[in-house]
Amino acid sequence: MKINAIDIKPGNVLEHQNKLWLVMKRELVQPGKGGAFAQIEMRDLRGGNKTSERFRTQETVERVRLDEKEMQFLYMEGDMATFMDNDDYEQVQIPRETIGDPADFLADGMTCNVTLYEGTALSVELPQQVTLEVVEADPVVKGQTASSSYKPGKLENGRRVMIPPHIAAGTRIVIATADGSYVERAKD
């Protein structure tokens, strides 16, 4: 769908130079001499690179519509995660690198939001928090100050995280999927 550069808004996805770009910021500039233009700051959806482009306000750009679907995680095979569309039960394989570090927290049956463009997955959004069991926790070192002394711990999925000293092995805790940080002790 073609739109005028003046109508571009942050959050839009544009097709420019055969790449998909997410618009981060838009600034309309009206110099004293010459025509007005839109200064657009955008990020490549596949590569992650950022760029800044200038478009004349009357210039048209291709705006892309993305599909967002709720999909259920089935299993991980090598570096490919398999998801199932909840509507038509079609299975889609998504490379682990598309998901990024949060892929460590994928669990069987977990519902995720997958952003697709022409059938190709661009991103996978996991639930914000997951509950996992601590299987290994280093003992507390006496004399450590209580303020910010986190200790290393290992979760049931094999991921190592920093946990508070009072958490022992066998305790279920809530973890933020975005960065793998400890949130709280799970309420059973």
Structural summary, described in words:
By secondary structure, the chain is mainly β. The protein folds into three domains: 63 residues, SH3 type barrels, CATH 2.30.30; 59 residues, Nucleic acid-binding proteins (OB fold (Dihydrolipoamide Acetyltransferase, E2P)), CATH 2.40.50; 57 residues, Beta Barrel (OB fold (Dihydrolipoamide Acetyltransferase, E2P)). It contains one helix and 16 strands. The strands form three sheets. Strands 1-6-2-3-4-5 form a six-stranded antiparallel β-sheet, with no helix packed on it. Strands 9-8-7-10-11 form a five-stranded antiparallel β-sheet. The chain has a five-stranded antiparallel β-sheet with strand order 14-13-12-15-16, with no helix packed on it. Strand 8 and strand 9 form a beta hairpin. The mean pLDDT is 86.
Main β-sheet: number of strands, strand sense, barrel status?
Answer: 6 strands, antiparallel
Number of structurally distinct domains:
3
SSE string, helices as H and strands as E: EEEEEEEEEHEEEEEEE
Mass-distribution shape = elongated
How many alpha or pi helices? 1
What's the assembly state of these chains? single chain
Helical proportion, percent range = under 10%
**Low-pLDDT residue spans:** none
Strand order of the largest sheet: 1-6-2-3-4-5
- The residue-averaged pLDDT reads 86
Strand content: over 45%
Remind me, CATH topology of the largest domain?
A: SH3 type barrels
Task: Quickly name the level 1 CATH class of the largest domain.
Answer: Mainly Beta
- Beginning-to-end CA distance, first to last residue: 50 Å
Secondary structure: number of strands: 16
Q: What does the radius of gyration come to?
A: 22 Å
CATH arch. level architecture of the largest domain: Roll
> What is the SS-derived class?
mainly beta
